[in-house]
Design a protein that fits this description.
alpha+beta, Double Stranded RNA Binding Domain, 3-stranded antiparallel sheet, 4 helices, about 55% helix
Length: about 140
Amino acid sequence: MTDNIKTSLTIDDINAVIVNENYIVSDQATICELVLKNGAKVIGINYGAIDPTRHSPERGKEEAKKQALEKVWELEGYLLRQKLQVMRVVKLPMSTSHLAAMVLEAHNSKGSHMTGTSNWAAHIGRTVALALHNRTLSQEIKSV
């Protein structure tokens, strides 16, 4: 089963990962905190107009949010680029759910005692390699 894999992001994709937004407004500066689905927080800051009499709290919120959204675009762009790179390396369509299932399988087979990023990375790498090997064997058997 293959999924249609996106190769670009839209504003709807960006808005979909934002679960909450908070603002702190002072005399001139405005801070926008965007909370993402995974708990990450992104902050945008607007320092206000140079002339304090021209300061608009609403404009400050808009500009601070715009800056925070740019950071979300960067993060989501990185994640999408990483996902596409993994798919190119393993040379098979892989949905997020398929990759998540492989990670869960790796976690369950080794137990929760596994610590350290390098241990996880090595084990996940072996799990992906085994999945590819099994897929290749399956294809060879079907062709016989």
